[in-house]
Amino acid sequence: MELNTPQAVRQIKSCNKDYAVVEGEKQSLLQAMSFALKFHKLNLIDQNGELFVKGTVPVNSKDSPDAALGGPPNRLAWQNS
Q1: pLDDT greater than 80 at residue 65
Q2: Cα–Cα dist 24/35, whole Å
Q3: What pLDDT, on a 0 to 100 scale, did the predictor assign at position 79?
């Protein structure tokens, strides 16, 4: 099921399993919650006794041109002034 970040973290935290499969790799539940913070929406599937976690909508990084303030600063703009 697709969940937003707080819902996904709560779901992972309340899970009674020892690990989660995050993007195809077995990881601890703490690592899975840390991974969840990198996404706005996540897909969590409890199947065959395992919890599968997959990010669907990533949070924009500060190096991304789509970031909140228009991307990284233009270095040439301040060097020439």
Answers
A1: no
A2: 13
A3: 55
State the amino acid at position 31 in one-letter form.
Answer: Q
- Entry field: residues in the chain: 81
Structure tokens at 12: 């992972």
> Residue 51 above 80 pLDDT?
yes
For 32-70, give the DSSP string: HHHHHTTEEEEEEEEETTEEEEEEEEEPPPTTSTTSTTS
**31 in Cβ contact with 22 (< 8 Å):** yes
pLDDT of residue 80: 53
